[in-house]
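Appendix B, Record 12. Input sequence as logged:
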Amino acid sequence: MFSHLHHGGFESFWISGALIFAVLVYLGGWLCLRRHERDRIADWRAGSFVLGLFFIWIATASPLAALDHNMLTAHMIQHLLLMTLAPPLILLGAPLKPLLYGPSPRFVRPISRPLRSAAMRRLGSALTHPAFCWLAAAGTLIVWHIPEVFALAFRSNAWHGVEQASFLVAGLLFWWPAIRPSPSSSKWPESSILLYLFLATLPCDILSGFLVFCDRVVYPVFLSSPQSFGLSALEDQQCAGALMWTCVTVVYLIAGAVFTARLLSPHRLDDEAILRFESQTVAVRRADRQREAV
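Logged structural output:
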């Protein structure tokens, strides 16, 4: 336990430093764009990005990170912060703009130029395809909650870091098709996102329901852990499952309500009608020009 706490303190130090550096870089680019009136980012988006990084800090570098070896509920809070709450807040902050057009673009653009090649664009399009993003999130959730794999991450600091990183990456991939922070994102109809979110609740519901209603401790590693807050290992497991069930359902319901409101918005309908009218007008003009040429 002493070795774990010592290593955890070292990890907390560099994770906190990296997150502070990311905040400073983002805010520098945000202020630069705000000052030049060029592709300004709304204030609420900047707050969303900072809040997302704060959630990552809570999950990985705060005192909560030391409790995940004692309570499954603490581990579940980490999982929810890294995979369900922090990623959408970060993507809503439009993090690519401050990085590319911030105070030091001459250092970033040479690195980003190879990423704009045709091959990298095809790779990015494949990685952000809704089907792949859904499978990545569901697979990450299921694999890391297999008892043998869970025990591996519990006993090894290295594998525990891999687990946390995979939760965050899977969360970013999952929310990418829904938020679409980049213009090159997959152009699936927004109505399909409602089905996408609904299907995403199924693996979470199955896992959380199993943890809540199971009459035995699924992860024996917590049987030898000291009881925290007066909860036994089985009660802690039931609390973790109920927390996951409730949090995921509420977050996805909010996201679904937002997309439904956007789909039914009269301004959106007016914009789509204008776009259809303009496309029809352009098609008629092209046909007239072709007839004149003939």
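Residues 270-294 form one domain.
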